[in-house]
Each structure stands twice: as structure tokens, then as C-alpha cells.
Amino acid sequence: MEPRPIEKDLKMALEAAPGLTALAGNRIFALRIPDGTMLPCLTFQRTTGRPLNHLKGHAASMVRMQINVWAKNYEEGKNISLEVGRAIHQSWLTAWLEEELEIFDDNYYRLILEYTIKQSGGFEK
Fold first, then answer.
1. What is the mean pLDDT of residues 10-29?
2. Is 95 a domain residue?
3. Could you give the number of structural domains in the chain?
4. Mean pLDDT of the chain
5. Is 20 exposed, middle or buried (0-12, 13-18, 19+ CB in 10 A)?
6. Which residue has the higher pLDDT, 120 or 79?
7. What's the rounded Cα separation, in Å, for the pair 97 and 95?
8. What is the CA radius of gyration of the chain?
9. 49 pLDDT exceeds 80?
10. Cross-sheet strand order for the sheet of 28-30
11. 57-71 and 41-54 beta bridge pairing
């Protein structure tokens, strides 16, 4: 069996979290926000990564993932970022928050969460 891409596992974990979907709905996208999407929403992308191999081949993946929370105001963004953390830590992914950054622009708030994630399993049949 081949390992499933960790991005797919991350998206599945975020979409399975009722607290997060209550705040952001199903607006969770890889890399970019589609035109016409309402805030709040999330984007994610791999920033670095490496496989963890053993003598029989691929065992897991260790990657750095950037999750961007896009919101209409700071409080909304902060609440969503807390739910992102809950979603990840309640999933089958082993992860830890490395960095957090907050940015304000004229029309939105952006909270950037940098997680290192070790894929624990996640094999497709």
C-alpha cells in the first residue's frame, strides 16, 4: 500500500472537526481561495517535508504545513485558529505548532499557523 498524501489527511482531519466546520463551514482549500469565496475560510500548503524511511521503504512523512485562517475580524480568526489546533490534535496526525503569525489588511485578518506534522499511518487501500 502506498501512503496517502499528508495534505489529504490534513484536509480530512479539518473537515471532520465539528467545531471548525461550525465556524468556517467547508471552506478549506489547498493553496488559494477560489474567486467568490466568503470569509471566513482556510488555506493550507506544504512548506517543507521529508520522508521517514526504514529498510522496507517509506514509513511515514514529516512535513511543515502552513495553515492560513482568513477572517473578517480578529476574534473570528482567533476562534477558528483555536479550532484548527483542536482538530489536528484530536485526529490521527501527530503534530505540534511551530509558529503563529497574525496579519491585518484593510479587508481581512490572516492568522498563519505553521505545524510540523508526522503522518501516523494514513494508508490507502
1. 96
2. yes
3. 1
4. 88
5. buried
6. 79
7. 7
8. 15
9. no
10. 28-30, 41-54, 57-71, 109-118, 94-104
11. antiparallel
Q: To which residue does cell 492560513 refer?
A: 68
Asked if residue 49 is part of any domain, the answer here is yes
Q: In this predicted structure, what is the pLDDT of residue 123?
A: 43
Q: What is the phi/psi pair of residue 74, to 5°?
A: -65, -45
Structural domain span for residue 19: 6-61+71-118
Is residue 1 in some structural domain? no
Q: What mean pLDDT comes out for the span 77-99?
A: 93
Residues 43, 27: Cα–Cα separation, whole Å:
8
Instruction: Say if 125 falls within a structural domain.
Output: no
Q: What is the pLDDT of residue 92?
A: 82
- Bridge partners (DSSP) of residue 32 are none
And the C-alpha cell for 37? 469565496
